Amino acid sequence: MASEKVETIVAGNYVEMEREGGDGEHQAGAGAGGGEGGGAAPSGRSKLVSSLFWHGGSAYDAWFSCSSNQVAQVLLTLPYSFSQLGMASGIALQLFYGLMGSWTAYLISVLYVEYRTRKERDKVDFRGHVIQWFEVLDGLLGRHWRNAGLFFNCTFLLFGSVIQLIACASNIYYINDSMDKRTWTYIFGACCATTVFIPSFHNYRMWSFLGLLMTTYTAWYLTAAALVHGKLEGVTHSAPTKMVLYFTGATNILYTFGGHAVTVEIMHAMWKPQKFKLIYLMATLYVLTLTLPSASAMYWAFGDALLDHSNAFSLLPRTPFRDAAVILMLIHQFITFGFACTPLYFVWEKAIGVHGDRTGIFRRAAARLPVVAPIWFLAVVFPFFGPINSTVGSLLVSFTVYIIPAAAEFMRTVCMCI
Length: 418
What we know:
Keywords: Amino-acid transport, Membrane, Transmembrane, Transmembrane helix, Transport. By secondary structure, the protein is mainly α. Helices cover 71% and strands 0% of the residues.
C-alpha cells in the first residue's frame, strides 16, 4: 500500500506537467504551446508529427533509450574482451554484470521516487527542471553524497562522450582512410556538437528508436559474417592466459552495462516514471541478445587473433554489408554522444543559472557549447578508445553503476529504521 501511495503521488503532478508540455498522446486540452518554448497552440498535424518523432515519454520510449544507450561502440570491442577472458568467462560476466546492473538501476528508480515524493509533498514544482542523480542523493542523504555522485557521474559521462568521438574516427577509417584519424575527430566533433540543439531526453524518441535498429543490424551482421567466414586457419582459443588481460576484458564488459549515469534523466522524461522499475531489466535482456551472439561468434571464428584487433570490423573483409554497419554505427555514436552529453548540459545550465529558463533554442545551444569544447579537445589528444574503455570501466563505472546506488539505498533504509 505504501509503495502504491508513493507511485500515485509521483505520477500525479508529473502527468499534468507533461500534458501542459504539448504531448499529443496525453494531451488534455492544456492548449499552451509546450514546455520548451511556448507560443501558439500547434495544429493537429504538427501535434501528430511531434508525438511520433519528437516528444516522447512513454515506457516504450524509456526502453528504447535504455537499450540504445547501453550498447554502442562497445559492441565492436566485446569480441576483443572475449579473447582476453575466454568464451565461458565472457558469457558468464555479461550475464552477471547485466543482471547486477539491472538491480542497481531498480534501486536508483526507488530512490528517485522517494525524492520526488518528498519534494512534491513540499509543493516543489519541477516544471522546467530536470531532476538528476546528484540532486536525488543530495535530497535524501546530504551534500557529501551529492558531491560523490556529481563527480563520478560527470567524469564518467565526460569520458563516455570522448570515447564516442574517438570511435567515430576509428570506424570511418575502415571505409575512408584518405584522412588521418585526428582529422576525422575534428569533423565528427563538429557534427556531434549539434546535440546542443536537442532540449532533453523527451526529444530522443526517433533517435533512440533508430539507434537501436542500427546496433541490432550491426550485432547480427557481426554474427552472420563470423559464421560465414568460418574458423580462421590455425585458430587458437587460449584465453585466459594472463591475469592483467582477464581483468582488462572484465572491465570492458562492466562498461557495457554502465548506462546508469543517465537513468534518472530518462525516468524524469517519462509521463509515468513509476513504470520504470523493470524497464532497465527488459532493456538489458534485449541487449544480451545482441552482445552474446556477436561476441561469441567472432571469438569462435578468429580466436586469439582478436588480441591484436580491438575493433571487430578490422578482421572482417570489406563488403557493402560491412560498410553499411560502419555507417550505421557512426550515426548511432552521434546519438550516444547526445545521451552522454545531455546530462552534462543540464549540470552546466544549473551551474550558470539558465536551466529552466524559457529562452530561445539558439541561446540555450550557445550556453551548452562550453561543455562540448573540452570533450572535443580530449578526443583529439587521446585517439585510442580501447584503453579508455577499460579505465572508465574499472575506475568510474564500478562506482557509478554498483557501489554508489547500492550504498545509497542501504543508507536510506538505515536512516528510515532509525
